[in-house]
Amino acid sequence: MVLLKIEGIHHTYFTKSSATTALSDISLTVEEGEFVSFLGPSGCGKTTLLSIIAGLIKPTEGSITLEDQPIEKLKSQIGYMLQQDYLFPWKTIEENILLGLKLNNLLTSKKKQDTLRLLDQMGLSGFEKQYPSQLSGGMRQRVALVRTLATEPKLLMLDEPFSALDYQTKLRLEDLVSDTLKTFHKTAILVTHDIGEAIAMSDRIFLFSPRPGKILKSFSIPEELRTISPFQARNHELYPEIFQTIWKELEQIETNQ
């Protein structure tokens, strides 16, 4: 079933002296439970498109629907996880993960217990009363994921959530996030510059051109990779071939700039 439908999105940023087109004629659909990645060079409008999908920016042209409803009506159904965790340093881990529920007037005893259980599943039991400064970067990102999932969003937006982490932590978090989203049957969109990350985590990859951003190609990841963990996918015999194919496409983009 189609969860997200993007039709004819065009976006231009205007200033007093200039107009810069960030996106041109973006149309795609995302199925319920699907994990898709937006991949492309810096400045190709990937994050702009995420902001439009989240209802933070109104596009110059085009429309976006979630479950056939205008996205503006369903902003609360979208979760956002960023490169920075944006945890409040003066609040405990427990207070941070319950914040979204509290702000949306959804905090009940059951929701609180469910959220604390999820924190435990992330390997963070016993850290409820600690503060963000007492946690490592990887642990903070796990807390941010719990906070994002606590409100039970229908769609998750992941804007380079692992890029600030060391490589080993990044690989572990890829597996953890992928497994968690599959367990909860969540639909997700990942923005990344990392070809390997996109291949290892995604069902489909959309490759963007430089500004103005357009979808040049889409790649469907083989079933053999989609049914295993991201770490296992990186070691699968099909992985190098897919990596080289996408790498060559990106090289071609750079050459034509």
Automatic annotation (TrEMBL):
Pfam families: ABC_tran
InterPro entries: AAA+_ATPase, ABC_transporter-like_ATP-bd, ABC_transporter-like_CS, ABC_transporter_ATP-bind, P-loop_NTPase
Keywords: ATP-binding, Nucleotide-binding, Transport
Name recorded for this polypeptide: NitT/TauT family transport system ATP-binding protein
Taxonomic path: Bacteria, Bacillati, Bacillota, Bacilli, Bacillales
Domain ABC transporter: 4-235
A molecular-function term among this protein's GO annotations: ATP binding
Span of the signal peptide: none
